[in-house]
């Protein structure tokens, strides 16, 4: 390591360095090694150690009172996330673990890296990049570990918190706090999410090999716990795909963003290609396209150097992987679950279109948001059994809309919505079956009981009209099918609608080359 870099760091450090460590009682011996390695690295040093599961402060820690402040946490409240309650108001913050052998120039090099990047970043010696399309959290990461040689600074998606540092100025008035870490044992993920939401880059610093080494410990690490705990792993997968990936890859992810959500469960490639191609052509370049798929497909053109299947799409497309457990609920049940949960994770003010994968977009569908609504539905262009078609749904994200969406999600499992159960039975739909009709039944009931939705949830349900989901009747006799196709082709040539819905037999118009 270049000693000039270290010397330059010492010259600029005129501010306090706050070190935050959380340790468990089983690792007292390792904690002693860690503190002995750190305590003499700087004069302007304050080390705060949270002692989880300790009932008293060990005498040897009391002997370090000139630099080390212990904080007893006998019940392990908030676990390792308790350190965020100790954030200082100024200076540098360095976070360490209790199971790593840190180098004697650790602080100097992290601070030098902070200054190289003008105090605008978080620096770390352990981080990962997410490889898209991302399936499982544990398998989707390319990790640059603390013991690996790093020839230059690189940007990462995920930060290893136990060897990271930043200056208070990086976050401004958005300092990390306990409320940013709602679930224990997910510190790296939630901290990386906080960085992404606040546009604070994560930089993995240059270093020699074996710069940091692991200390031998008893018990399992968080990494091992995640591998062996299916529930924890599932939670990490959800936070990664529903929150971190959108924050990293979606444009205007700040409450002003536009999102089109499309579900592809093995749809005919020709239909999916037409849906993506026409949407890409007519929509604003700032509109984010997200595809929910039960296969790890890459829908973007030349994404990350790999040519995608759907090469007519010129903008990035983010894949949301639907897990086997989610998919097992049924086609429409899992569609509602995954898409509605995604919407609940978006910032308020976001505009969302949920679309089927058999659409032909004539004009920009997001113009529907010129109307005033929370939930925009599309009635059918002619009389039918159901007043709506659920292939197109518009949502303006608010807390009230999120409450409604969570209520619908709850009814995937409980069937506790009397009006929905009654409606399902009216058409011979089993309330316990979430494979095909659930989404449309729930949306029809929402529309038919719009006043009740307004009173209960405070949402405004509005019909934006069939021009946003033009699907003439196309089932039945040969004559009825031919009539439906003629009506759709007429709408195409007249350019009188915004979205053509190629459902049922209408999709044959694509297969026959009648819709370019």
Automatic annotation (TrEMBL):
This is Nucleotide-diphospho-sugar transferase domain-containing protein. Residues 346-410 form the Nucleotide-diphospho-sugar transferase domain. It comes from marine sediment metagenome. InterPro entries: Nucl-diP-sugar_transferase, Nucleotide-diphossugar_trans. SUPFAM superfamilies: Nucleotide-diphospho-sugar transferases.
